[in-house]
Amino acid sequence: MRILITGGAGFLGSHISDYLLKKGHTVVVMDNLLTGSISNIEHLFGNPNFSFIRHDVTNYIHVPGEINAILHFASPASPDDYLKFPIPTLKVGALGTHKALGLAKEKGAIFMPEAEKFTALRQYLTGLVESGERIGSVPMNDGVDVDDADDIALAENFVRTYFKETSC
Ligand SMILES: NC(=O)c1ccc[n+]([C@@H]2O[C@H](COP(=O)([O-])OP(=O)(O)OC[C@H]3O[C@@H](n4cnc5c(N)ncnc54)[C@H](O)[C@@H]3O)[C@@H](O)[C@H]2O)c1
Questions:
Q1: Do residues 34 and 22 touch, judged by C-beta distance below 8 A?
Q2: How many CB atoms are closer than 10 A to CB 126?
Q3: pLDDT band of 168, cuts 50, 70, 90
Q4: Whose C-alpha lies nearest to ligand 1, atom 20?
Q5: What is the pTM of this model?
Q6: Coil, helix or strand for 53?
Q7: CA of 13 to the centre of ligand 1 (A)
Q8: Whose CA is nearest to atom 28 of ligand 1?
Q9: Binding pocket residue ranges, ligand 1, CB within 6 Å
Q10: Phi-psi category of 10—alpha, beta or left, where left has phi over 0 and alpha has psi -120 to 50?
């Protein structure tokens, strides 16, 4: 299969790239390097089955050729990063998911979101608003509000609706 991994220069995506290449798949990593790093994937650059596209997935995504599956991992991953990059986090959760789904629809590809992210981010945001306590190492009341949890719900809604409409 030819597999696109959004956020593939990050921790999880880069390890999954290694795994899929070893299994004989072709891997295209798309990443804007917001929290990821080329150093995570530089050992793959000589591999003819690997390619890297530097791109922000909140913008229209074009990938030439067939894509059989999309693993959607692009997103800041920790509460610290959510607070450091609040707007990019919201954008990638909603708009990035929408754009990745659009590509899956165009290519007839299987779409696999990193589902735990949505749950974890919603729990974090909801807890931040409701608990009045510190969560992990992140202080309360520093600019994230309950509307952000709604934004993740929007991303999940995109996924459910695209699944219903396209069976991707
Ligand atoms: N690391 C974990 O233990 C863990 C556990 C559960 C879920 N997750 C989820 O898995 C996903 C990846 O986590 P990670 O630990 O690999 O994080 P990471 O920060 O190492 O990787 C995320 C990647 O997404 C990229 N990215 C962010 N915004 C982007 C955009 N707009 N366009 C293109 N690329 C973009 C970053 O540059 C980075 O390379 C996240 O959604 C995270 O919430 C991670």
A1: no
A2: 14
A3: low
A4: 10
A5: 0.84
A6: strand
A7: 7
A8: 75
A9: 6-7, 9-13, 31-36, 56-58, 73-77, 88, 92, 96, 114, 116-117, 120
A10: beta
